[in-house]
Design a protein that fits this description.
Blueprint: H1 8-25, E1 31-37, E2 42-48, H2 52-56, H3 61-78, E3 84-88, H4 91-113, E4 117-119, H5 124-134, E5 141-145, E6 152-156, H6 159-172
Parallel strand pairs: 2-3
Antiparallel strand pairs: 1-2, 4-6, 5-6
Helix pairs in contact: 1-3, 4-5
Length: about 180
């Protein structure tokens, strides 16, 4: 049986109750705010606490586990799948900025050298953030490769884009007076 989607307010209330109960069971006191992220089609649980480090964990492992638990409990209670994203002390925002910088660095190297650049040691969510960060760059292509813990992102600059960039650079440097690019 498929249940009708809950209204946004009712869904947020349910998520807030689940999050409050879960962190209280962990012995952590904090303020919880729940909002909809329409752009990423997710419900965001923002937690502010003096014990942020405990909830974030080493390399974000605890925050990832907490997010998984909240998603599972929500499904168990409602029968609906909802993408719930947990952010503690703006960790996800800082992480997104950091991964965006990493993605731009890898893209820059790929464009400059013409060689594929690999980015290792990322979780599935982090790989997704890198793919999204480079999605609007027409000069690079990203793909995931490998299995399990060895899964990584490869950032490539297609040869045609690299040649066009090099030709443009030569013109800017005054080395070529004419520029003709053929498809």
């Amino acid at each position: 049986m498929v249940k009708a989607k809950k209204s946004s307010k009712k869904k947020q209330d349910t998520v807030q109750k689940i999050a409050k109960k879960t962190i209280s069971l962990l012995g952590i006191d904090g303020d919880i705010a729940v909002s909809d992220d329409k752009e990423n089609e997710a419900t965001v649980v923002q937690i502010e606490t003096d014990e942020a480090g405990i909830l974030i964990g080493r390399h974000g492992e605890t925050i990832g586990a907490l997010q998984l638990v909240l998603n599972q409990i929500f499904y168990q209670k409602t029968g609906e799948w909802e993408r719930i994203v947990v952010d503690v002390g703006d960790y996800r925002t800082r992480q997104k900025d950091s991964l965006g910088n990493l993605a731009q660095t890898a893209a820059g190297r790929a464009k400059e050298t013409g060689k594929p650049q690999s980015v290792f040691d990322l979780s599935a969510a982090e790989r997704r953030m890198v793919h999204i960060a480079l999605a609007d760059d027409p000069d690079v292509v990203t793909e995931s490769d490998g299995e399990g813990r060895d899964r990584h992102i490869i950032v490539k600059a297609p040869p045609k884009a690299r040649l066009a960039r090099l030709a443009l650079k030569r013109v800017k440097d005054g080395k070529d007076q004419k520029l003709e690019l053929k498809n």
